[in-house]
DNA sequence: TTAGGGTTACTA
DNA sequence: TAGTAACCCTAA
């Protein structure tokens, strides 16, 4: 049984300021174990701060710190943003944040205790190993079967099928047309050759 | 579920 | 500061 929810807690901000106030931790539970989590931040504006301050005042932090998890009030915040007419794209600032409670949530919130926690080692950047797996997957499944590729090569990874699709698009942009000034990934030449070979077979259309 | 447009954080 | 990478959002 899988339960996905948006839970919340205070977030320690690396830098000060009002825009550091809103923080959230999203994760899902599979077989009673936290298997995926993601820090999420939202734009901070005066009305947002007041809105969430009200929510925090209504919450019982002591209960949460003793092990209880609350359904996220920021779900309402998101609805609040959507009501303001924003249409597409990522909302608000994205800042790296430090969770002061990530360790005790994910090391102690085990309901069955027989499964490894799957945490995100590389919070956002793809590793060369991940790219290698993606290339293997595209070699086997081709382009467009991201869910199957995910199940086969990224079953326990935080990377979703959408992430895989987006990463492949970025790889093709980087290596197919060779128009980029630089790439941040330091891939082995044989892997780059393989990407180019696959790019020729499955070209990025735009 | 996937493709592609769009936004934002990060890096050189 | 421009370009790249990550990922969100919506249409189909």
From TrEMBL:
Stored CDD domains: SANT_TRF (cd11660)
Keyword list, A-Z: DNA-binding
DNA-binding is among the record's keywords: yes
Protein name in the entry: Uncharacterized protein
Domain HTH myb-type: 125-176
One function term, GO molecular function aspect: DNA binding
Myb-like domain segment(s): 118-172
One Pfam family here: Myb_DNA-binding
């Amino acid at each position: 049984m899988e339960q996905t929810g948006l839970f919340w807690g205070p977030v320690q901000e690396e830098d000060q300021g009002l825009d550091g106030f809103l923080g959230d931790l999203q994760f899902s539970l599979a077989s009673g174990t936290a298997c995926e989590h993601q820090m999420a931040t939202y734009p901070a504006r005066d009305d947002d701060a007041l809105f969430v301050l009200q929510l925090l005042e209504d919450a019982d932090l002591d209960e949460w710190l003793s092990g209880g998890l609350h359904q996220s009030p920021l779900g309402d915040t998101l609805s609040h943003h959507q009501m303001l007419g924003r249409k597409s794209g990522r909302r608000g600032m994205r800042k790296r944040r430090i969770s002061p409670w990530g360790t005790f949530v994910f090391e102690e919130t085990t309901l069955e205790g027989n499964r490894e926690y799957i945490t995100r080692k590389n919070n956002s950047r793809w590793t060369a190993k991940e790219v290698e797996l993606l290339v293997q997957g595209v070699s086997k499944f081709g382009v467009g079967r991201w869910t199957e590729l995910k199940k086969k090569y990224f079953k326990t990874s935080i990377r979703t099928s959408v992430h895989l699709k987006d990463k492949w698009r970025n790889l093709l942009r980087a290596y197919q047309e060779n128009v980029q000034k630089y790439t941040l990934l330091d891939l082995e030449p044989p892997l780059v050759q393989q990407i180019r070979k696959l790019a020729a077979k499955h070209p990025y259309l735009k």
